[in-house]
Amino acid sequence: MFAIILTVPRLTPQRPSLAPAIIKSLFTKHGKDSKILDINIDFYNNFSHAIDSDAFHAIDNFLYSNAQDVLPLEHQVLLNHWIDSWIDNILESSPKHVLISVFTWHAQKFTKLFLERLRPRTDAKIIVGGQGIGEIREQTSWIGTPLFAKQLKELGLVDHWIKGDAESTIPLICQETYAGKGFDGDEYADWHNLTHDHIPDYSDLDITAYHSGIPNGVIPMEFSRGCVRTCNFCDWVTSGGGFRTKTGQQVFTEVKYYYENFGVRNFYFNDALINGSIKEFNAFNELLLKYYTENNLPNRHLLYSGHFIIRGPDTGWKKSDIERMGKAGADNMVVGVETGSDHVRKSMNKGYTLADLDYNMEMFAKCDIKLYMLMMVGYPTETDNDFQQTLDLITRYQQYVASGNISGVNFGQTFVIEEGAPIFYHPEELELQGVDGKTPHDVFWINPKNSTLTYKERIKRRIAAQELANKLGYPIWRADGQLNWLMAKYQEIANGTYNEHKTRIQS
Predict the structure, then answer these.
(1) Residue 140: pLDDT above 60?
(2) CATH assignment of 3-174?
(3) Which residue ranges does the chain devote to CATH 3.80.30.20?
């Protein structure tokens, strides 16, 4: 076999990963046989039941943790035995290439353990890729050296790493070239022609095996790459090749294919935004409605969710557009609400106002569309009054929690300056200063014009926002874990032990 494509722990098991399905379709397009093996779902579905529950939770916590800890010997034996059984399975196909999708840094620890046992047993080209090949950080960037992959190569555990869009790098693997943009370097290989003729291939996977809680499962998709917005805290602005989109017809064709061949009725778009192009988004919804009519299906027979940007009526975003998406099957829209203050939202360069948000939310409630709110506490320009406006928004939107139109809220940690974001390169635009003479980064920044916004104050506001939301009945995602992270980080900073850049492998 030309290639085995692996998805490895630790990822949440709600749905399969999109990248391996794209890669498989590209191998097929270039006449190469390949197979996807999802080790991650086997970790949750089979390994978890094959061993004692306490042992599984210990191994699961070990893989998830970014600490350089060590498993007890009896647990390591269990994990090694399971890894070896998977390696036996892989080598039965005599693959010429083994590709590992390191989706996030949470997969780094398993990847290293797996490669330490795979590498001595095969001469196949081992190639890693994905956003997890960089350093450990809560919000992985495309920017900088992929430190984890580099260290794996220095240890002789991989032959190559790829960084960038699969459409640019997989053809080079098919040619057995292993060189060029995106290979073994810092440069990101982007791809701009999304109007291709291949559909991501999930045929090797049992979609119903995943833990979505939805009959027939959920298939991940993409409508576009990049983003049309220029939020100054987000690395999408400077990374990944800019905004490019599929056509509405193309996306409809994919949805129709998965529904008719897999029976799947639920889809999740992995994009930064599914409505970057109003024209193509409207075309997609129109085609869904036409399909329902032609096949005597009810409205919302197929459901889709994904990240969504707020637009106001002055941009051409009409109430009829929202009604159309509701009837077509828009289910749960993930929106960067961030704040209740237009002053803060403007300094973020979010591109919309509170009035625009209200306009969309009122229509969402009428059209059976849910909103999942992403919030950001402690932005550099956030004053006491701005934060109070955020609390006011949480209180005012409680009506949509009661109606079921707000499905949840994620407060994250507090504002951090991520490498790759515009504010990272131009902190002077907000007149930010670093700590101890360093460039402003991570949580290490101050705003002299907003001097009361210390890191301690940011944490206090973050806690206050969660307490209010909890009181009002908001479903809160990862709430306690995020607060524990905040407090631990605060203590590390106070003790002088915080490591700003971490990797799984010590240099």
Answers:
(1) no
(2) 3.40.50.280
(3) 210-494
Which token pair is 368? 């059976």
- In SS3 terms, 413-456 reads as CCCCECCCCHHHHCHHHHCCECCCCCCCEECECECHHHCCCCHH
Residues 6+ apart with CB under 8 A from 477: 408, 409, 410
E strand or H helix at 268: strand 266-269
Q: Which residues contact 259 (CB under 8 A, 6 or more apart)?
A: 265, 302
CB–CB of 245/288 below 8 Å? no
Superfamily of domain 210-494 in the CATH hierarchy: tm_1862 like domain (3.80.30.20)
Distance CA 237, CA 11 (A): 26
Identify which of 374, 372, 456, 455 has the alpha carbon closest to the alpha carbon of residue 411.
374
Burial level of 409, CB count in 10 A (0-12/13-18/19+)?
buried
Helix pair 384-396, 455-471: axis angle to 10 deg: 20
Which pair of tokens denotes residue 22?
């794209």
H helices of 155-243, in order, are: 166-174
Report the chain's C-alpha Rg in angstroms: 23
For residues 163 and 101, the answer to whether their CB atoms sit within 8 Å is: no
**Nearest residue to 24 (alpha-carbon basis) of 97, 76, 84:** 97
Q: What's the pLDDT tens digit per position in 337-360?
A: 999 999 999 999 999 999 999 999
Q: Round to whole Å and give the CA distance between 305 and 221.
A: 10
How far is residue 208 from each of residues 41, 179, 300, 304, measured CA to CA in Å?
Answer: 11, 38, 21, 17
Find the mean pLDDT for residues 194-214: 91
The string of DSSP letters for 28-43 reads HHTT--EEEEEHHHHI
Q: What digits encode the pLDDT tens for the residues 399-441?
A: 999 999 999 999 988 898 888 889 999 999 999 998 888 889 8
pLDDT of residue 500: 54
Please, how many CA atoms are within 13 Å of residue 123, restricted to the half-sphere of its CB? 0
Alpha helices in 65-107 (DSSP H): 73-91
| Residues whose CB falls within 8 Å of the CB of residue 495, separated by 6 or more in sequence, listed in order | none
- The per-residue b/e assignment along 28-38, b for 16 or more CB within 10 angstroms, e otherwise, is ebeebebbbbb
- CATH 3.40.50.280-classified regions of the chain: 3-174
